[in-house]
Design a protein that fits this description.
Blueprint lengths: L5 H18 L10 E2 L3 H14 L16 E5 L2 E16 L2 E8 L8 E4 L3 E8 L9 E2 L6 H4 L8 E7 L4 E6 L5 H6 L3 E7 L8 E8 L5 H6 L4 E4 L5 H4 E6 L4 E9 L4 E5 L4 E6 L7 E4 L1 E4 L3 E7 L5 E7 L2 H5 L3 E7 L1
Parallel strand pairs: 1-4, 3-6, 5-10, 11-14, 13-21
Antiparallel strand pairs: 2-3, 3-4, 6-8, 7-9, 9-10, 11-12, 14-19, 15-18, 15-20, 16-17, 16-19, 20-21
Helix pairs in contact: 1-2
Length: 329
């Protein structure tokens, strides 16, 4: 028999209630511009009943963002991050109640230099459940390092950023799909020695209607987005200069869909899978990035103009994973 702690039971209860909600008639409907994860009120009702013997539901908290704090002393880097629940805008006029790192989706980009010795403190401001952080750039024993942080507590992760690359970080608390699907992910870029940081970092991800766990299980998102908001780079394009290389660090946070990154009117002149300095693919029209993976793209534009960037999975592009790059002389 496997003995589960109360927080593991709580997490499983959240998932179970979410599946039942997704199967009910009209479970995915909303009458306002705020998308509320259906799992949260139900999950907190379970917690309240456990603590109080039954009672009323508690409104999901909307916690003010706590920005990431970074300090450096030579190659020793100390990072403080916060797990919290915060309302974020995921499309024009659409607000989503997200589970977040530091109050943003995706979480803040962690930029390190190769060889940095990192101390990362994760504070859990979320009063309703445990969270954790899994850093793909950290070569450590996960059962000892990527551990759960209970509400109101802090846990510390130590690692050395030995391998340069473009990596994902995310909450690893079960059910992991639910935590990632509700917004707990970001990019960590380890810059090779003597090299500049990428020009841009883009994280592709998905949002599911009302945070419905059943829809997450079936991979049917309502929005597919770049850096947390559908179509934002149509209204606010990225910029570049003719003949000047642009480096794009790209992470696909998923949690389910593959990305087929493509820029109309040019090629990806140098593709480094996972940002590896040892692997180069040249002059590709489109590059596939799996969920949980990343890549570093080098692009040089020959002519001024406006270039579209998309995932070439067109159904996903139509859900918001598209933007523009304006190139000037």
């Amino acid at each position: 028999m496997v003995n589960l702690g109360k927080w593991q039971v709580f997490s499983l209860a959240i998932a179970a209630v979410a599946v039942l909600a997704g199967c009910g008639g009209g479970a995915g409907q909303t009458t306002s511009n705020t998308v509320q994860a259906t799992t949260m009120p139900a999950g907190m009702a379970v917690q309240n009943q456990a603590n109080q013997g039954g009672g009323t539901q508690t409104a999901a908290p909307n916690q003010a963002p706590v920005p990431m704090r970074v300090s450096r002393d030579g190659n020793r880097v100390t990072i403080d991050m916060t797990a919290q629940q915060t309302d974020v805008q995921i499309a024009s006029g659409v607000t989503y109640h997200a589970w977040t790192f530091d109050g943003t989706v995706p979480g803040p980009v962690i930029t390190l230099q190769q060889g940095d010795e990192v101390t990362l403190n994760l504070h859990n401001l979320d009063t309703t459940m445990p969270h954790s952080i899994d850093l793909h750039a950290a070569l450590v024993a996960p059962d000892k390092t990527f551990v759960e942080v209970m509400p109101g507590e802090t846990k510390t992760v130590h690692f050395t950023a030995n391998l340069p690359g473009v990596y994902m970080y995310h909450c690893a608390t079960p059910p992991m799909l639910l935590h990632i699907g509700n917004g707990m992910y970001g990019a960590i870029v380890v810059v090779p020695k003597g090299q500049p940081a990428p020009t841009y970092t883009i994280v592709q991800s998905e949002f599911y209607q009302n945070g419905d766990y059943n829809q997450m299980l079936n991979g049917k998102p309502e929005y597919v987005v770049f850096n947390g908001k559908a179509n934002q780079y149509l209204d606010h394009p990225l910029t570049a200069k003719v003949g000047q290389p642009v480096y794009i660090a790209f992470v696909n946070a998923g949690p389910n869909l593959f990305s087929a990154f493509h820029i109309v009117g040019t090629v990806l002149s140098d593709v480094m899978p996972s940002g590896s300095v040892n692997t180069h693919l040249y002059n590709l029209q489109t590059y596939t990035v799996a969920p949980g993976d990343g890549a570093l793209f080098k692009v040089t534009f020959d002519q001024p103009g406006t270039y579209s960037m998309v995932t070439h999975a067109m159904a996903d592009a139509s859900k918001g994973a598209m933007g523009k790059i304006v190139v000037t002389p």
